[in-house]
Amino acid sequence: MAHDRVTLADVAHRAGLSKTTVSLVLNGREGTRLSAEAHQRVFAAAEELGYRPNVAARSLRTRKTATIAFVSDIVATTRFAGGMIRGALDAAREHDHVLLIAETQGDATFEKHAIDAMLDRQVDGVIYAAMATRRLTVPAALHAGPVVLLNATSADGLPCVLPDDERGGRTAATALLSQGHRDRIAVIGRNQLKETDPEVSLAADARLNGIRAALADVGAKLLRAASCPEWLPEHGYTAMRSLLRRAVRPTAVVCMNDRLAFGAYQALADAGLIVPDDISVVSFDDDPIAAWLRPGLSTVALPHETMGRRAVDLLLDGQTTGTTLVPMSLRRRRSVAAPA
To answer: Which Pfam families does this UniProt record tie to the protein (predicted)?
Structure first.
């Protein structure tokens, strides 16, 4: 018998039970009235016949399709941020849901088309995600149903999941303080636009606040903060070289992301200095490059997979407001040591 022709009545006939009873068993709503042997007969019959439930019909009854839309800008094609999708996929599977993924590449026209197409499929909710942590404008169509923002906030007060960047900043600074660094800690990656415009970045200001707060707790403050037009290796290189030219050289630097740290490593090597013997380096994100640097870069990891999981959980729990901050843990490698 072909799989697409198998009906509930066929399963009931094979199991020797009523169609209603079989339906309740397969939908997990029968309770304990039937014996374990009867349950086994139902599942065995369904498997033997290759029975597949009519999802469309069931969704009409329950108004649930067991599908979640995941709409993002460039998360899917960014290896670094792809952990958010992995986490969401795992959580969706555990909830017996399927994740429908669309990446817009920042194209507003395609985004509208993708969102409309997913809403037309009656998804149970939408996760609206951003690769960079920032405030964004949520398309009007998404306000009609359940939505959770992932790695983003909005002015609408919608539920969102964010990395706890401020506490991450404290963690980075504490990693240096615990090794004895105090008054000669510098920062690489100050950027006025990132620190003042939440539509560009929420991470920059939060990380800096955390760093400063951890230093203030022990009566210390930053030696210096080097500005960078972008958080890219070449700017980390230039910033590190400028710090080394100062009369008072830092014993440690906090880089605002791992790409800046990569550039800083190169500048230190060119100057004949060794990490961490001469200068300790700690950073943020745990980009794959961090583990490949020599020595390995200690960095405060973005918890992308956990964030993806939490977004699905909040969506299916019916969360309608509030911010969920996910802790960022330190990946301890070999770039931090006591000052020389």
So the answer is: LacI, Peripla_BP_1
- Provide the residue count of the chain: 340
- Condensed to tens digits (0 to 9), the pLDDT of residues 248-261 reads 999 999 999 999 99
Determine the CATH number of domain 165-302: 3.40.50.2300
Query: Mind giving me the DSSP string for 282-320?
Result: EEEE--THHHHSSSPPEEEE--HHHHHHHHHHHHHHT--
The contacts of residue 181 (CB under 8 Å, 6+ apart) are 251, 252, 280, 338, 339
CATH topology of domain 67-163+304-326: Rossmann fold (3.40.50)
Domain spans in the chain, listed from the N-terminal domain onward: 3-53, 67-163+304-326, 165-302
How far is C-alpha 253 from the geometric centre of its chain's CA atoms?
26
Using CA atoms, how far apart are residues 260 and 190, in angstroms rounded to an integer? 11
pTM for this entry: 0.81
